[in-house]
Amino acid sequence: MSFFNIDPKLKALCDKAEQKALPSFQEIDRIAQYNSEKVLSAFIKHGVSESHFTPSTGYGYGDRGREVLDEVLAEIFCCEDALIRYNFMSGTHALTVALFGVLRPGDRMVCLTGTPYDTLHGVIGLKEGTSGSLKDFGISYEQIDLLPDGGVNYDAIPEAVTGAKVAYIQRSRGYSLHPSLFVEDIEKMVKLVRQTNPDAIIMVDNCYGEFVQEKEPTQVGADLIVGSLIKNPGGGIAPTGGYIAGKAKYVDMCAQRLSAPGVGKEVGCTLGNTRALFMGLFFSPSVVASAVKTAVFAASLCELLGYEVTPKSDEKRADIIQAICLREPKALIAFCEGVQKGAPVDSYVTPEPWDMPGYDSKVIMAAGAFTNGASIELSADAPLREPFAVWMQGGLTWQTGKVGIMLAAQSMLEKGVISL
Fold first, then answer.
1. Is the pLDDT of residue 299 over 90?
2. I need a labelling partner for 381 at 20 to 30 A (CA). Which of 41, 94, 260, 310 fits?
3. C-alpha to C-alpha distance for 45 and 50, rounded to whole angstroms
4. Inter-residue contact 259 to 268 (CB < 8 Å)
5. Which residues of 159-187 are buried (b: 16+ CB within 10 A; e: fewer)?
6. Cα–Cα distances in Å, from 309 out to 296, 392, 393?
């Protein structure tokens, strides 16, 4: 019995794509097993109990659940301390708190991975007319551009970071086709920074990368890692939030920025959100595995359809993002419309390009999610600009993620942008 009207020829092609992806699935399952054991071990070690789910109000003094959740996350990421809060509105907000937390007027930050994600342009001061940026506070910014092939310019790092306060690394590709960074790449960058600037604070935007590999950047020398809970570590259960983790002294500086100087981590009521944050963190390794499988399947199918994809279906993964070069706006829009049709929420909605805040061109987004904007749930988005590539990610379950990709291809077939 079929619940979806998929063209028989396309269904056969999807079966072929899945068979082609099976060797990659085995490795994904192995990593998920390792990370699931790591998470379970941290929960047991820190004695997570039902009492830790008790809501707090007002100032939130003595909230044991909040404190233990920080300890659990720090244990998982093998670092000294963590700040995991529902108060973070987005990954960009968490990154902003971290940058303003450790930087002071007159400091300099250097991005080692080219121009960062679009939504950080206003934070840094790259976007004219934005009030309250780092630039407004006298903090200077420099970057090392990526090489023509999209790789990191490792040779330029030692000189560029000399005297810098923060060496900033973006792990994920963002809206670009350059490769995302593996933890091993970040380890190499850390060593190069330490050559000329052992005191630099090495900060990693870890969004989309958590639990894709066995190690996290804090395990190879990063001082701070930052991410969003409506991406990987929220497991599709956290309703909002983000985290900052790393060396205790820097996490404390960030906590003073999030709340108030002299107060730091001692306040912040949880209002009943702690259970969802614990539960999402617990589920995240298996949910991330489903998202990675969905990405591999999408790459495998689109390769068979003749599209360029990055990473390729048989390549190792550094994050959950899959980029597909669809070559024309019509194909891009059709793909996103199909993904939306496979969503458990708002499947009847037709996504359209719009002027999304923080972006410099119209963006189309397909995201029928239980949590608004959660990119650990199957979603696809793209700015309408050359090379008309779509960036898709997520999939709470591999089985439903697969259906979403099949419906994306069916939409392209119906719109006449592919033929079988």
1. yes
2. 94
3. 15
4. yes
5. ebbeebbbbbbbbbbbbbebbbbbbebbb
6. 10, 11, 13
